[in-house]
Amino acid sequence: MNDPLASFAEALALGRLRVVDCSQPLSPATPVIRLPPEFAATPPVRVERLSEYDDAGPAWYWNVLHLGEHTGTHFDAPVHWVTGRELPAASTDTIDPARFIAPACVIDCSEDARRDEDFLLTPARVAAWEREHGPVPAGAWLLMRTDWSRRTDPDAFLNMRDDGAHTPGFSPDAVRLLVEERGVLGLGVETVGTDAGQAHAFDPPFPAHHILHGAGRFGLASLANLDRLPPTGAVLIAAPLKIVHGSGSPVRALAVVPA
After folding, report:
1. 164 has which bridge partners?
2. How confident is the model at residue 169, as a pLDDT?
3. CA–CA–CA angle 167, 169, 174 (5° rounding)
4. Residue 1 has pLDDT above 80, yes or no
5. In this structure, how many other beta carbons lie within 10 angstroms of the beta carbon of residue 159?
6. Is 80 one of the annotated active-site residues of the chain?
7. Cis peptide before 204, with omega less than 30 degrees from 0?
8. How far apart are CA 27 and CA 125, in angstroms?
9. Between 20 and 30 A from 230 (CA), which of 49, 109, 143, 212?
10. For 79-123, what is each residue's pLDDT tens digit?
11. How far apart are CA 188 and CA 208, in angstroms?
């Protein structure tokens, strides 16, 4: 009988599989979400040098990191939102780690987002994708490719105006479809958060958080390189830090894809 783990390792070693880094760099330049002034704000990333082969540590280099749980490429746990706060195994330290590895489906909305910064993925668009690629399987990540990660200027990435952010995302009906009917593991986006920039005005407000986390599912935000993933066939590894009662965590999201 073939050993599946040995076959997997051999496929990696021989280049039959490749690993795509779907993460953004994490540094003081990393954009963080901007909330109205009445709410607590996520601070920018701060890196404090402890030593670098000097008197403070002659043979070693290391830093202290100061950052919010939802900074850079990050994982949203169900407890992050009020709808998920009473669920069992809903924080980063209690989620079954087997759920951090799952197949990924990628819907390419890059041209739509280029034409319309407020583009919303709808059930009709999901249905069109499924006619070509088959049903979104239960337990899979649904990743929305917008190429938003190519916006390297922080102001253009956040795209704030007087009425809030203008970034693409999911319609409420699309979230309901994907969570309640398709049973996805979670939703992933290239923007700073899983909801569209104008989602405060939706019903319910912030549906990608409200519905997703209320159902015990996950979010991934600030992903990158989704253009290097096939519509189906990739496996995504997105493991948050094991923070006690953590609402989320920066992640190094890695996709394994056929070469």
Report:
1. 161
2. 98
3. 160
4. no
5. 19
6. yes
7. yes
8. 35
9. 212
10. 999 999 999 999 999 999 999 999 999 999 999 999 999 999 999
11. 10
How far is residue 41's CA from residue 128's CA, in Å, rounded to a whole number? 39
Strands (DSSP E) contained in 31-172 are: 46-54, 57-66, 74-76, 101-108, 120-121, 141-145, 160-161, 164-165, 169-170
Specify whether the backbone of 147 is left (phi greater than 0), alpha (psi in -120 to 50) or beta: left
Tokens of 100: 């951090």
The full DSSP string for 164-204 is: EE---EE-HHHHHIIIIIS--SEEE-SSSSSS-TTGGGSSS
Residues in Cβ contact with 48 at an 8 Å cutoff, skipping those fewer than 6 apart: 63, 64, 65, 66
Token duo for residue 104: 């990924």
Among 74, 80, 209, 210, the active-site one is 80
User: Is the pTM above the cut of 0.85?
Assistant: yes
Mean pLDDT score across all residues of the chain: 97
